[in-house]
């Protein structure tokens, strides 16, 4: 744990130094209103970039959240196979995976996974 | 004794980091040369001897370019998100199974999943904070894509973890001495390969930086240092993903030379795919992950669980 801590500090230092180095090494630059405006086809951006985005991305994220929680529940199963009664663990894990699979099929059936309406 | 061990360990990690950086440099050279020969032209072959020094010249050029300050961007976030993505990729490289002088992660697979799921946020924040429409669109696409492929990636990985009943990366080698998992779980390993393509935003699935539609996707606004770090972390994660493929499916014994030959072949395959396949369509990409890879990986997970129970 301590070793990992030391190494993560080392890595953070290295990458920050690399970023800092570019600021020192980079050529002199001039600031201009047009130059610093965000890149788009014309000179001025047509619309603000902070726009509300499509709901699909949000829905996909919600579905992902469900599955990620389920993955987080599956992972401890691997170690608990060694700790508890094998047969009961088998029953629990089969039931759980079956629920996950049926849940996925249910979402599919309810057209939650469709990207376009 | 303790201090000596610690010192040796730090040296080992430093050597690993330098190795990763040099590997990334030559991977870019390989990419440019291979893409050149795929398109029947020569790649860079003048700098140094046969273009060997080209990547280093590129790095020096990139580092001396000017740093941009986009208007109305959230500058601190904009500045630090490439740094954080580089940190995360280097942290995930700690997982390479050295047999000495390194940490041996007992829960290596969990560490890998933590690192990859953190990597999503840096792309999203890099896209959002630079206050450009192209960058925002690229960031959104990258988030939805990486998130949905991460689920199937984790589930595919779980079925090979169930085979060995352990989270340690080193153990994969001991279980693959007689038959590679690549043949044992044939469709799943190919699913893993294409999921890792999508996870690293590589070409058939490079919607985060679709050059023809969004100019450069989530990193339009980045110049010198930020761009270099994003680039480095992307290519380091390509190398890492190919290392993981070797480790999980093709019997990787990381002290042998053949391990590194296989690694470079798989990372060449990433480039080969870039030179060959056109870009996918976005809704098809989503269907591919949610409607084929996810059900397949769940069903195979059930199957391998049954297999393990059968053989116990």
If you had to describe this structure to a student in words, what would you say it looks like?
The complex is a heterodimer of chains A (117) and B (312). Chain A is mainly α and 117 residues long. Chain A has a domain at 56-117. Chain A contains four helices and no strands. Chain A has helices at residues 2-25, 33-36, 55-83, 86-109. Chain A is flat, with a radius of gyration of 25 Å. By secondary structure, chain B is an all-alpha fold. Chain B is built from eleven helices and no strands. Chain B has helices at residues 2-38, 54-63, 75-92, 108-129, 133-164, 171-175, 181-184, 186-199, 224-249, 257-276, 282-311.
Structure summarized in a few sentences:
With about 120 residues, chain A is an all-alpha fold. Chain A is flat and about 70 Å long. The model of chain A has no long low-confidence stretch (mean pLDDT about 80).
As a percent range, the share of strand residues of chain A is: under 5%
**Average pLDDT taken over every residue of chain A:** 81
**Topology as H/E string of chain A?**
HHHH
Distance between the termini of chain B: 43 Å
Put simply, the count of helices of chain A is 4
Task: Give the overall shape of chain B.
Answer: globular
Uncertain residue ranges of chain A: none
Helical content of chain B (DSSP H or I, runs of 4+): 55-70%
Membrane topology (chain B): Multi-pass membrane protein
Catalytic activity (chain B): a ubiquinone + NADH + 5 H(+)(in) = a ubiquinol + NAD(+) + 4 H(+)(out)
EC number (chain B): 7.1.1.2
Protein name (chain B): NADH-ubiquinone oxidoreductase chain 1
Topology summary:
The complex is a heterodimer of chains A (117) and B (312).
Chain A (H helix, E strand, L loop, with lengths): L1 H24 L7 H4 L18 H29 L2 H24 L8
Helix pairs in contact in A: 3-4
Chain B lengths: L1 H37 L15 H10 L11 H18 L15 H22 L3 H32 L6 H5 L5 H4 L1 H14 L24 H26 L7 H20 L5 H30 L1
Helix pairs in contact in B: 1-9, 1-10, 3-4, 3-9, 4-5, 5-8, 5-11, 8-9, 9-10
Main location (chain A): membrane
Membrane topology (chain A): Multi-pass membrane protein
Subcellular location (chain A): Membrane; Mitochondrion membrane
